[in-house]
Amino acid sequence: MFTSHNAAAAGALRHNQAMGQGQEFDVIRRLMHTWGDLATDIGDDAAVLPSRSDGLRVVSTDACVEHVHFRSAWISPDEVGHRAAAAALSDLAAMGAVAEFVLVAFVVPDAWQPRLEAVAQGIGRVVRAAGARIVGGNLSRGDTFGITLTVIGCAARPVSRAGATPGDLVVVTGQLGGPGQALAAWMQGQAPREWARTRFAQPWPRLAQGQRLAAHGVTAMLDLSDGLAADLGHLAAASGVRVVVDSAALPCGPDCAVGEALGSGEEYELVATVPPAAWPALKAAWDAEPLGPLHVIGRIEGKAPGEPPVMVTSGTDATGFDHFARPVVEMRPGKGEL
Questions:
Q1: Distance between CA atoms of 338 and 195, rounded to whole angstroms?
Q2: Closest CA to 270 of 86, 103, 119, 11
Q3: What is the DSSP letter of 15?
Q4: Nearest alpha carbon to residue 36 among 151, 108, 127
Q5: CA distances (Å), 313 to each of 246, 257, 297, 298, in order?
């Protein structure tokens, strides 16, 4: 365990705790050296975080496991860390939260010991860009490499996926289809296009975008981890509505088809629902900042019994990805998928 007593909670800057001898502590010291000032007050059994009076705490956890979420032949150790941190912090973005603290737990086989600093560098790059700090975690040996990140943030108005109402517009950030296209290429023994590979290996959590969307009154929001079609289904179920998607409005990435944009998982873009009256102010504020693309892709309708929760106007059939519906460990061509 390498958890912290947060300096802000004590009201004064504290140094990291001195640690004893042993291989585990040597690894922790290596990680702390890699993270530098990102890792604050490491060494106690638990983190003590400062209280907030300007919002609610938002907490999430996310796991990244070799042979399930990636293969080491596909991406570098640095990219493994980058991708894991982005995926975890994306959950805060989906709630419109500001990122504050991160805890990192590793399961490290012997073969991964020499790669751990590179993994930590990737984690650190994303955490630093998010404006957060690493306040602890855990370290364990095991047969399969894995990272579990717990992320903690604060939101003045957390946005759930349960507030969409008929008449709302459906908007999505970014361009879609890259991660799914990269995965399909790897599974066929081919090298993916560079744009698709980068979207898979080096995504960025849309924290600023989530905060802007929340500030302008979006009614529901979530990040795209299972694929647009599947995640819209989650939003529809939580809100008790139907989502109608205009396939012609989908922001397909370079050389990506509509089906790829609908089904590609682990995009870490944001999809949100916006009351029509709020859209002009949101669009004006969005265009005034470097927040990237924001596309209107559909609308929310009331759902009648027996109707599908998501309807694509072209009739394209894409169900996205359900982590437990299909085998994820057998990642060989034609069977496994993320």
A1: 18
A2: 86
A3: P
A4: 127
A5: 5, 15, 11, 9
CATH 3.30.1330.10 residue window(s) in the chain: 3-155
Phi, psi of 141 (to 5 degrees): -85, 155
- Give, in words, the CATH class of 3-155: alpha beta
Residues of the chain with CATH 3.90.650.10: 169-312
Q: Which of 190, 180, 186, 195 is nearest to 259 (CA)?
A: 180
Regions of the chain with pLDDT less than 70: 1-28, 31-32, 40-45, 315-338
Nearest alpha-carbon partner for 185 in 322, 333, 78 = 333
Beta-ladder partners of 101: 133, 152
Q: Which two tokens stand for residue 322?
A: 């359900």
pTM for this predicted structure: 0.85
pLDDT at 36: 76
Residues in the chain, how many? 338
Which CATH topology does 169-312 take? Phosphoribosyl-aminoimidazole Synthetase; Chain A, domain 2 (3.90.650)
Residue owning tokens 């005034």:
288
